[in-house]
Queue: 2 jobs
Job 1
Amino acid sequence: MAATKVVVDPITRIEGHLRIEAQAENGRISNAWASSTQFRGIEIIMQGRDPRDAWAFTQRICGVCTVVHAVASCRAVEDALGIEIPANANLIRNLVHGMQTIQDHVIHFYHLHALDWVDVVSALSADPAGTARIARSISPWPNNSETYFAEVQSRVKRFVSGGQLGIFANGYWGHPAYKLPPEVNLLAVAHYLEALDWQRDVIRLHTIFGGKNPHPNFLVGGMACAINIERAATINAERLEDVHGMIRRAQRFVEEVYWPDLVAIAGFYKEWAAIGGGVSNHLAVGEYPEADVRDSGRLYFPRGIILGNDLTQVHPYDHMKVKEYITSSWYEYAGGDGVGLHPYEGETKPRYTGPPAPWEYLQGLDKYTWMKAPRYDGRPMQVGPLSRMLVAYASGHADVQALVTEVLGKLGVGPEALFSTLGRTAARGMETLLLARRMNVWYDQLVARIRGGDTATFNRTKWDPSTWPAQADGYGYLDAPRGALGHWVQIRDGTISRYQCVVPSTWNCSPRDAEGQMGPYEAALVDNHPLVRPEQPLEILRTIHSFDPCMACGVHVLDATGAPIVEVTVQ
Amino acid sequence: MFSPNSHPWSADETLGRHLEKRGVSRREFLEFCGGLCAMLGLGSSFVPRMAHALQSMKRPSVIWLQLQECTGCVESVIRTSEPTIGNLVLDLISLDYQHTLMAAAGHQAEAALQSSMKENAGKYLLVVTGSVPLAENGIYLTIGGRTAKTILEEAAAGAAGVVAVGACAHWGSVQAARPNPTGAVGVGDIVKDKPVVNIAGCPPISDVVTATIVHYLTMGRMPATDAEGRPTFAYGARIHDQCSRRANFDAGQFVTSFDDEAARNGWCLYRVGCKGPSTFSPCPIFQWNSGTSWPIGAGHPCIGCTERQFWDTMTPFYDRLPDVAGFGVERTADLIGAALAAGATAGVAAHAAATAIHQARRRPLPVVDAPVRSDPPAPPAAKE
């Protein structure tokens, strides 16, 4: 039987614009291509700007992971200029980034990923009493009554019977790959709706420290939110108590809703623990500094590299071994398509060679995406919650080891189950649980410092450009919700001469490199991967969503070729 | 917490009948309309009209295109507090196409778009986030192999109204900052044959988006706008004129360095770069995330994100706006303006100040009581 060509474009329930093409044979995927179809050129725009403004520009790379580029940018500039931020500012950044990750992971599970596993239509035939029984058996969450689930079901029933299906129209309902009993489907639908309200509340932590969300404000040298417990317009006891409440509510929802739901649903899909593993190298740059950010030995989630899924050894990470290739990407290098370049010497010149739009297929073309291909020491790397949990597990992180052991035991599977589509989704939940607990520690530390009289949030010694060296290079790392992120900045005579980001989704969505090695999305799709109905590509969505794609983040460009910057005329 | 509703709004009933079933009394309903009128800057005489319009309304189809963007505007709308996103999607509108939330992908997603455009031709509301890249024949953004420009033109052709949400859809935003490598433009640069309302901001406050949609649905037309196409109920006044730290500005109490004594007193951020004097936005009044705070309230200067070209005109962000400190911007502007009018030679700094302030002030004054005609619906205020 000849291979069937499959195109999924747009991949929905992600950030940004992603196209997946594949070939299917006898119910399996035999080949796959991941294409990013958007390009914005933000790094070109960075040239000639004030480095203290860079966080705001790069923050707009992504409004979903809305703090990660801003913080990585601040760290890169602070690294270049030798700025150490006050301990309070570091704790506030940890709280802001921590809440970002928790909120992001929960939204991902319920609103972006769940509909791959949960059949909304099946929930209509559930017995609400049965759902309540199941819910009570896995969690003490108060909304576990039969009445509650009956009302949710009735609401969805009337919505469906009204004929206007809105966001649920044309879903793959009734597809044979859906395995949950109706009662569990109803449980998940109820929590889909509850999570929408929950996220709106807990993310207000960003508003208190950064003034708004999305896109809260940051500051090179610390944070702009002054602390003064004697004033109304500053961070005071009232603001801190509001933050404390959000941390408590975040933890409770994660412990009593997200985590139990995830484990319960995973139990019905254990075969996905042997599907979609793909690239077996993992990179974690590490995150949540417990001291100065340069002290890579004091990160809550440790830094390191796993090769070939070998958990007996953690290799050290050296950012100088990161190189980007454009063999399959719509760019050109002065040195040709075969070379890889480190971000400090990176060059990018967009050069579209694809067919004119509209087109039908990109598969088979030498170049097929706006995404570059980053490689570490020549190897493709997976990044994200799974990579972080694996590096932490292999590094002897006590909290992670205990949780991994508990989960594997509950599901009755071995550690090899982690290297899979299900493993990525489960690791995201584990990480959320650990972070939700860790937030209390950072909060308590912040309050203790304020009680002790230290309210500093900003280091002003290098604020004035006259204090800067004529040349300064900096690297800012951050392990974002979707994985390892790096910003590289070069400052010359007070302005940015070069700026580059290597982003989680660039690692994961990377195309084939000069050696023909597939990127993680592509490799996962051809790793023991089913596709029962090519015209209803539900299984492709499961694996792609398990990476939590963030495409706007992934595509970026640095122009090191000195192209002239055109002045705009402002009216 | 989410409160489930056993009576969702079905396609075949009016809102009036629907609310009746949900046990909402006439009095409660009129109170709701009154609150909405107040938020939209409409006088109390419009309450009965709004009530009538709302009661006879059916669940309208909304098509939401996401173009060259960061998805921050979608995230902002997901944070909306009243109505909540759950109620919005299940009860108030039929959201037929929206990438971030919709279950279907690929061909099924595009089929949903096509069928909604066909079935609701001339009636659906088109919401757009993101800009349109025009360079290189539009290949910097394709969806399903088609360019953003093609997709937008097709969707706009059958739309009853177009709402451009966020700075990217308004004018291009960060990707349109110099040198605008992809040739990004806003929705209004493509859609010329019908009114486009711009919900400015990077991102905008979600409540402004939902209030604009409700205004359109109830009034039968878009809200009154300023020269930038921004609804005056939200963008009619400068941040500086509504700022809770304005008294500190007038008293000469300025933060001169972050985390200094003045910052710890919550004083004015003008000297560390605040763009509030040149920015029209409802941040100080509506506030962010269920009224929790707002940028200046959390100690950071305004970066002017509701203004066109702010990435180039408002940067460096930490440089102060040109002004003679101590008397307030209006007074300075008036003095300089008068001097220029008299033909006096102004210095470079004064000229820069006058330009910046003139730019900020040239927008029309807010329309407090927007005229509403019973028939036929008037077109929205024309753009400049």
Job 2
Amino acid sequence: MAKRIDVSGLTAYYSAHKAIEDISMTVEPRSVTAFIGPSGCGKSTFLRTLNRMHEVTPGGRVEGKVLLDDEDLYGQGIDPVSVRREVGMVFQRPNPFPTMSIFDNVAAGLRLNGSYKKAELADVVEKSLKGANLWNEVKDRLNKPGSGLSGGQQQRLCIARAIAVQPKVLLMDEPCSALDPISTLAIEDLIGELKERFTIVIVTHNMQQAARVSDRTAFFNLAAVGQPGKLIEIDDTERIFSNPSVQATEDYISGRFG
Amino acid sequence: MSHAAIADKPASTLRGASLPKWSPYAIAAGSLAVAVGIGLAAGLDSKVQWGLIAAILFLLGTFGIAARVEGRRQAKDRIATSLVWVSFLLAVVPLVSLVWVTVARGVKVLDVYFLTHSMGVVADTEPGGGIYAAILGSLEQVGLATVIAAPIGVLTAVYLVEYGRGNLSRAITFFVDVMTGIPSIVAGLFILSLMLMLDMEPFGFAGSMALAILMMPVVVRSTEEMLKLVPNELREASLALGIPKWRTILKVVLPTSIGGITTGIMLAIARIAGETAPVLLLVWGNPFINANPFEGAQASLPLYIYQQYANSAGSGAAYDRAWAASLTLIAFVMILNLVARGIARWKAPKTGR
Amino acid sequence: MESTQITDTPPPTPQPVSAEQKRAARGATRPGDRIFLGLSRGSGIFLLVIMAAIAVFLTYRASLAISKDDANFLTTFEWNTGLVPPKFGIAVLAFGTVVSSIVAMVIAVPIAVAIALFLTHYAPRKLSGPISYVIDLLAAVPSIVYGLWGALILVPHMNGLFGWLDTYLGWTGIFSWQGGAPRSMLTVGILLAIMILPIVTNVSREVFRQAPQMIEEAALALGATRWEVIRMAVLPFGRSGVISASMLGLGRALGETMAVATVLSPTFDIQSSLLDPGGGTFAQNIASKFGEATEFGRDALIASGLVLFVITLLVNGAARMIIARRKEYSGANA
């Protein structure tokens, strides 16, 4: 049920400050698209416009279109709450609900809709935890608080929580930046498995990671501090890292700035 | 129900049926109209009741309509939003009324004559008289209280922040917190028990002592907060230059935070300036001018308000004076507050955070 | 950055400086340091002495009165210090104090929590700043002004509500009304609620503001409505804070004197209905009876004040303890 995302002419603001300007791109379903670029280039902001989380920030507003299989997320009568249900998100720092158990964390999104039987719920929780490669580690302590897990486990718990509600798209905002290398590897493997079912967009600072996990890569840059970030180019990952068409991309990838 | 039906059709999963943006206003207007209707029909004379009925109708209406059109989850969200707004408006009503009434009734007799004359032999039920003695008494009592409480409070805070380790500082911290909660009348009773033992008559300074007890913990707390904002690097820089600690505190730490400390003291003054209970027990009140806070009963502004209300058997003239004195007191307290906050903003330490 | 540079720059003789620093940190070698430390520690100790003195002197004077009390101080329903032998007890006052405070809490806490949520999660940002400011100012309005407003404005407005309560809820007994002036415990409770609203709101607001943003975003990203975000990510963090805020408010309500003294028409018995005038509170009773009291009568009032003191100590101490534990739990005091 993965869906395609078509962005056209998207500009996002923080109050009067323009954070990103005129971005257009297509994200293919059942693939991993990585966003790379220097700090402050607006890649995280852009990611947050894809599930209408940007407008949660005070002063945040958006112009342009984001089509999710031909339906504009910013169109008239669209409910942002339903959008976020379709487009799940995993954050930079693992953020399980600290007052809930592991089980309740995964079930949280389902419970919002209320209409689940106990057995059904347990089934979905198990499937989601298995989907996040976490089941074997936590199956004996589902009733313990989620905050007792290690950082990497917490992040996979958050992924399980996000996929439990069956989103069409999964957004990941630097999901490994707070994790150690082994946990990072586990998450990267997981991303490879998840792309069979979801459209995945991942923001990362780590270019090796982008090269390892993604099918397509988008490079963002900004002209100067205080200027809005722009999409420089998007292409197959292989091409971006071997033979990019824009000089700035090559400079960034070869470590000449950023 | 409608929600589930929508969720089945993949084409419109993003498009939950929703009420138009103007609907809360429409429901509000509708419930207000119905409430006025009910109020008129049932002959309820109090506008407050009309308002309450309107509020209840608004809540029920919002929930009912939203549940039908948007589904239960959205309805819950909407009712939470409405409840929050209604609570806010509900709380605003008495507060606006308080300010409005005080100003409207207070200005009736508030003039230069009122501020510069005292009650003297004017009977409580007669018009005339003023609050000069009360203002004088209040200023003296509050001033003396500040002279006692401010240095002790600031020094205690310095001890807690700059020296405080171990059990003593933990005990002081705890009891300062507890002391903030002492009812003002208990502070008054404490001084009263001393006076009973020393066989003393009421006088202004007795009130000052009780007010100082109420003021000290407030000063300690606010000063503590301010001292904690002073970055440690500043202290270390000074100490590393070989400047002794006490001079470091006096020359570096306190000047850096002086704006915040002043603000805290002024807010504390504003708080005790309105205290009535201890003054009632210890200073008694006096229709004549007594400029000596160390001997004989004195007048006091908050006490004046109470006595004009309580001793006048419903005389309109006395009530007018009570409102005018209230307006004066509120103005004094508010000006202190505004100035204090102004200083805080102006002198805010640049923490760079 | 700058200051670290300063610490780095002056090392012509680094050894003595650090020794100096150590001695200075101990703060007891130079006369100036010794005097200053003595003064500041002395002030702190002075505060402790005052607290102890309050307890000791009130207890002493109270014991003078209670030892001559011919009736049980805790359970007696009358206050006749002039009788020979005197009979007085605090049963009515304890009841009235508790009832008026409970009424105040029941009304104020939900509204305060709602306003705090309004300010942190609902109000447009441009609005929430000024409103917080106004609430701060309202906390500064002297209680006697609330009292005057309550007696002259609120009381007349209560007639309608009382009639309505009597008609529809009179059968409960709690809300029956014989038609006296509405200077009753309910009116007192409502006035107290208005008075403690600012402090409960302010403390709750701070607590809600500190709820971690990333947990709220987690809930949002799952497709939670605003209310669901608050339930999942804000209220669980705020619970202990709201409890302590309420207890701080309760402490205020318990000890409030003038607002009760102006509004309540006191009697020395217990009314079963919240609407009928009568009853009394510790603080109100002290203020009203003090004028005519003899020295013995004053000692008796001090005895009742001691009880109030102990109750507020317990309530405030508990509130502080909850706050302290919460700080440790969240590691916010680092």
